[in-house]
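Appendix B. Chain record.
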Amino acid sequence: MRGKKPPIRALVFDVFGTVVDWRTSIIREGRILGRRKRLRVDWAAFADAWRAGYRPAMARVRSGDLPWMKIDDLHRRILDGLLKQFSIRGLAEAEIDDLNRAWHRLRPWPDARRGLARLKRHHVIATLSNGNVALLVNMAKYARLPWDTVLCAELFHHYKPDPETYLGAAQLLGFAPAEVMMVAAHKDDLRAAMACGLRTAFVRRPLEYGPDVRIDVAADRAFDYNTDDFLDLSRQLEKAGK
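C-alpha cells predicted for this chain:
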C-alpha cells in the first residue's frame, strides 16, 4: 500500500505559454516596431518562427554542441537569422537589442495575476523557467507577477527537461520533490517533473499558438491536477485541502 503523499508546499511554474501569452505579445511588439520603421512583415509568422527556434537552440546547448548560453543570448542568435529570413533591414543595434528584449515584456494570461495571488496565500510560488534571471525579473515587474522567488535554468546551467532543473528547484526551496508541484501548460514538461518525483498540475492554454492551431489540452489522469486556469487550480487545491 502506498504511503500518504506529503502536503504540497511550493508551486513552481513554467512561464512561456503557461503564465504569459508570448505569441500575442511578440506580435504586438513587432507591429509597434513595424509602424515606427515602416516595415512590411508578417509579424504572426515572425513570432511563430522565433518560438520555433527555441527548442532546437536549447537542444544544441544540452547536447554540448554549444557552450552554456542563457535564453537572452539564444533568442538573439535566433533573431539574427530571422532578420535575414524576413528581410528586415535598417535597424540599429540598439533597436535589435530592444526587439530581443520583447521577451522581457510579455503580457500575462487574463487569470494569471489573480490566480497567482490566490495560490500564494497558502503556497510558495516560484518560476521554473528556461528563461534567465534578468528576463524573468523584468517580466515580473512589467506584468506585475507576484513571485516569491525566481528559479530558472540559468541557476543550474541546465535547461528543462534535464532533471537538474526540477531537483535543483526543490533543493533551493528546501522541500522534498514530492512537496513541490510543477505547473505547466506543456505535458512534456510535466512528465519530466513527474519522473523526478514532483507533483504535477496541467493548465490548459488552448490559444498559446493562436486560434488556428489545435493543441492537446485533454485531461491526463497521470497528472495530479488538470485545470482550466490558475483560478481553477486554486479552487481545486483549496477543495482538496492542499
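Further analysis of this model is presented in Appendix C.
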